[in-house]
Amino acid sequence: MNTSNLQASCSGRELLPSTPSHQWTPRRLTRRGVRRAAGVEQLLRRSTTGPQKPLHLKQASVAAAALSTNSVSAFKPEPAEEQQSVQGGGGNNQRSATDKVGVLLLNLGGPDTLDDVQPFLYNLFADPDIIRLPGAIKFLQPLLAYALSTARAPKSAEGYASIGGGSPLRSLTQKQADALTVSLREKGLNANVYVGMRYWHPYTEEALEQIKRDNVGRLVILPLYPQFSISTSGSSLRLLEKILKEDQQLQGLRHTVIPSWYQRKGYVGAMADLICQELTKFPDPQNVELFFSAHGVPKSYVEEAGDPYKEEMEECISLIVAEVKRRGYSNHHTLAYQSRVGPVEWLQPYTEDSIMELGKNGTKSMLAVPVSFVSEHIETLEEIDMEYRELAEESGIEHWGRVPALNTNQLFIDDLADAVLEALPYVGMVAKPSDASLVPQGELEALLQAYDRERRALPSPVCVCVCVCVCVAETWNGRLAMVALFVIVTIELATGQPILRTILELD
């Protein structure tokens, strides 16, 4: 196929057809998947008002329940419904309000200026879903977060300085919110769209305060992470759950969560559009390696806590590659994971190792595809565009390209609007996973109970020896020993060097 034909295939912006060949089929479940499916089934039983199903289901029935599809037609409210009068509370608290619809976009956040880098990193490391310490030393988390953020801030500040002095994530996410507002109105829904960041302004708490002031009655919660992970979407949702429970005014807020949306046709189609467009810029488009780089998570999160991130990521790549192939490209592809920190094992293969291996094996053209990011930020603009590009060139790769983040891509935004409309009928209830999605859509508490409900202590993403501290402290005893261990662990976290393990091996 020549370049002109390739360009023509990209410009058609064809969506995946709604045929059985493009629908997910049930997969063989692992033991962890069966346990998760059983948890989802219990939630579904609790959320229904009809006759209760038997508590003990056969394994096959549980698997089928977890993987059954549930197509939902787009919901278009009538004008009268948007102004419906609702009653809340009782006695003096009784009030009449418009049934306003709100959409809350959740994202990571990023420092606006170089002065914000250290406090932003503190918020990140202080999150127990990012660094999970055993119960006996959880009290050390604020001190650990301060030490880590102080140690890592100078290097991180250099990265932010190289992309303009701060993260563009806040402004880009607000642009996405504005575009989503317009798209929803064009589809017949007058909704307010809010932005809530986990680790920087505007914080989730700030967004909820505005939601209260606007008297929103129905809320669709939409994390801007295509794939669900307990360390990204899960962290934001746990914070949101805590606030909704503690704030009396928000306790009655009807809501639903769209936990992941990597399988949606608009998202897949938009990604395929961008890949096709970038491929035509290479001298030999058919021989370009499609290099999907996803944000990494510690391997223990997947294997011990049941995080569905890896499985959803692999399915996401399969869908995108299939759509790109449908448009005439049969390029070889690689999935790798970036942004690992410290000596603990993360999901593999690692991005840097894969780039070097591909170069060693003779790859000359590579197109980087940041697949877990929908907005440009430091991991695309600095880590991929600068660090990984330099590594690729050193590894013998002659032609390099990078697919831009979706940002306010119209197909992508319109698809998010459709997702919101389809979610509205599920406000206040739990839906069965649709399109074989691994995470059920529904209310916060019910959703989070289906995943990692025990919240066991896991090896920290940036340290391999933290869990040893308790046993060693019991042996050494004394506050001085604890201080020494804390200092050693802090150095490990900041440098990535397994100092404590080396000391123990010398004994």
UniProtKB/TrEMBL annotation:
Its EC number is 4.98.1.1. Residues 1-28 are annotated as: Disordered. It comes from the Eukaryota. Keywords: Chloroplast, Heme biosynthesis, Iron, Lyase, Plastid, Porphyrin biosynthesis. It holds the Pfam family Ferrochelatase. Pathway: Porphyrin-containing compound metabolism; protoheme biosynthesis; protoheme from protoporphyrin-IX: step 1/1. InterPro entries: Ferrochelatase (IPR001015), Ferrochelatase_AS (IPR019772), Ferrochelatase_C (IPR033644), Ferrochelatase_N (IPR033659). Residues 1-10 have a biased composition (Polar residues). The keyword Chloroplast applies. It is found in: Plastid, Chloroplast. It catalyses: heme b + 2 H(+) = protoporphyrin IX + Fe(2+). Catalyzes the ferrous insertion into protoporphyrin IX. Belongs to the ferrochelatase family. HAMAP family: Ferrochelatase. This is Ferrochelatase. The lineage of its organism: Eukaryota, Viridiplantae, Chlorophyta, core chlorophytes, Chlorophyceae.
